[in-house]
Specification:
This protein is mainly β and about 140 residues long. The chain is about 15% helix and about 40% strand. The two termini are about 25 Å apart. About 30% of the residues are buried. Keywords: DNA damage, DNA repair, DNA replication, Hydrolase, Magnesium, Metal-binding, Mutator protein.
């Protein structure tokens, strides 16, 4: 039995006018076709907020302000454990028009979030944002 590797990942729950940004992974990426909150891996020496600002700038070419912590959850994917820290964020400038990692960007009302096919690590945050209890 191989030992699990923990991968620290951050994600932005970007809110604008009561809507939340959902991003669909490009087909050639891991979890291709699944929806997620944008973000990425936290690098050594970065705080989660620093990593999130960097990742959103690289991925969506927009600046954000991190407004607070939402939740952290661990999900096993293959031999790895994804520790996903979701944080609430606001856009500093205009909304993103494209993404390096995604083929579709959609603004959804919180209650619409569960209707999308989400990547497993994002499901607890989706349930919380939609006001539904999370299942363990």
């Amino acid at each position: 039995m191989s030992e699990s590797r923990v991968i620290e990942v951050v994600a932005a729950v970007i809110e604008h006018d009561g809507m939340v940004l959902a991003c669909r992974r490009r087909p050639e990426k891991a979890a291709g076709g699944k929806w997620e909150f944008p973000g990425g891996k936290q690098e050594p020496g970065e705080t989660p907020a620093q990593a999130l600002v960097r990742e959103i700038s690289e991925e969506l070419e927009v600046a954000i302000r991190v407004e607070g912590y939402l939740r952290t959850d661990e999900t096993t994917v293959g031999d790895d454990v994804i520790r996903l820290t979701c944080m609430r964020a606001r856009l500093i400038d205009g909304p993103p028009e494209r993404s390096s990692d995604h083929d579709d960007l959609r603004w959804l009302a919180p209650e619409e979030l569960p209707s999308m096919d989400w990547a497993a690590p994002d499901l607890p945050a989706v349930a919380e944002l939609a006001g539904r209890p999370t299942t363990e």
